[in-house]
Amino acid sequence: MDYNRYPFWIRRQLERLNVNEANITFNEHYFKRSHRNITEETCIETIKQGSVIMFKSLWPGKLVFTKYFGKENQTYTVVTFFKEDRIEVRTAWKKEGR
Questions:
Q1: Do the beta carbons of residue 90 and residue 81 sit within 8 Å?
Q2: CA 40/CA 28 separation, integer angstroms
Q3: Given 3-state DSSP classes, what are the helix, strand and coil percentages for the chain, each rounded to the nearest 5?
Q4: Cα separation of 11 and 4, whole Å?
Q5: Biggest alpha carbon–alpha carbon distance for the chain
């Protein structure tokens, strides 16, 4: 994946923990928001194939991923924190359309 379009600190986080091979865990806050009806598989796919929203991401470790699923006509947004050895999903939400 080409990370050159992102600022240096985002590139460093994405290269340090390979998104496709990293251990992805879910915070208890994510499970408290079960009324949003977002599966863990959808969150993992959004992290692996989605793009980073730079203006919502914060240094040193908060990255926000988004991905549009065309058949469902839904856009999923996942807030993650990059830890030393894993990626932790804090929360996720979806919206209609792009």
A1: yes
A2: 13
A3: 30, 35, 35
A4: 7
A5: 37
Token output for 14: 């994405």
Pairing of strands 74-82, 86-96: antiparallel
42-93 pLDDT, tens digit per residue, is 888 888 888 888 777 777 788 888 999 888 899 999 998 888 888 888 888 8
Contact 10, 78 (CB under 8 A): no
Q: What is the pTM of this model?
A: 0.81
Locate tokens 């699923």: which residue?
69
Q: Could you give the CA distance from residue 31 to residue 46 in angstroms, rounded to a whole number?
A: 17
User: Of the CATH numbers 3.30.2310, 3.40.1710, 1.10.1740, 3.30.70, which one belongs to the domain with range 8-96?
Assistant: 3.30.2310
pLDDT at 68: 93
User: Would you state the structure tokens that stand for residue 96, as one six-digit string?
Assistant: 């209609």
